[in-house]
Structures are given as C-alpha cells and as structure tokens.
Amino acid sequence: MTDWAYSGYRRPALPWPQSAAGPRRRGGPPRLHALGVDYIYLDSHDKQLDFEALLAELELTPDQAAVMGDDLPDLGLMRQARLAMAVANAVDEVIETAHWVSRFEGGQGAVREACELIIAAHNAH
C-alpha cells in the first residue's frame, strides 16, 4: 500500500474486531502504520459509530467514502458509502451488496488491490 501513501488520498482506516487475527499476526498496528494506514480501530464494537467519527474527523461524507467488508456487520456501512467493496471470501449478502469484489480473500491482498483500483480510477480521469 505504499503507493497509496504517495497518491494524495487520505489513508485507509481499518476497524478490526477483537477476534480478527490478521493485523496482530502480521505485526499489528506498527506494521499497518508502516503500510500507510493512519486510522486503525482495533476492538471495534460499533463500526457505525467509528465510521461516523472518522468521517467527522476527516470532514467527509459517506458519499466520499469507500468501505470494504466481509461479513454481515459491514452491510450497513457498505450501503452508506459511495463505493462498497468486498473480499473474495465474504458472505453472500456482502458480495451481493458490493459494487466491486476483490479477487483476493481477506488478509491476502484484498485491501491493497482495492487501493490500487481507486488510484487507477483516479488517474484515468
């Protein structure tokens, strides 16, 4: 995601529930910060509140946001965001809601692919 850091976009935010091992297994928040992720919500108990707080802090609206999901708790945010994305191994309802689905599973490069898609789309215009 280092290209993202130089793209001029605000850096991604990751809400991560306590049960998710991904960031912890691969180095945790220091590793995510090194990849250019400025906002990390570990142990998120209410993604909606975190989403609203992040949008307020960044002075954005949901229409200016992209959300990537994999499970049912992500549907509300996905329905609000301008761009709803899903990882390849998301539950059916999330895939059906998504505007775009990564070819990668969660933790296997899906977020990087999404960032590259956004950068390429921006560069095309």
Automatic annotation (TrEMBL):
InterPro entries the record matches: CMP-NeuNAc_synthase (IPR050793), HAD-like_sf (IPR036412), HAD_sf (IPR023214)
Keywords: Hydrolase
Record-linked Gene3D superfamilies: HAD superfamily/HAD-like
A GO molecular-function annotation: N-acylneuraminate cytidylyltransferase activity
Residues spanning the signal sequence: none
Name listed for the protein in its UniProt record: 3-deoxy-manno-octulosonate-8-phosphatase protein
Record-listed E.C. numbers: 3.1.3.45
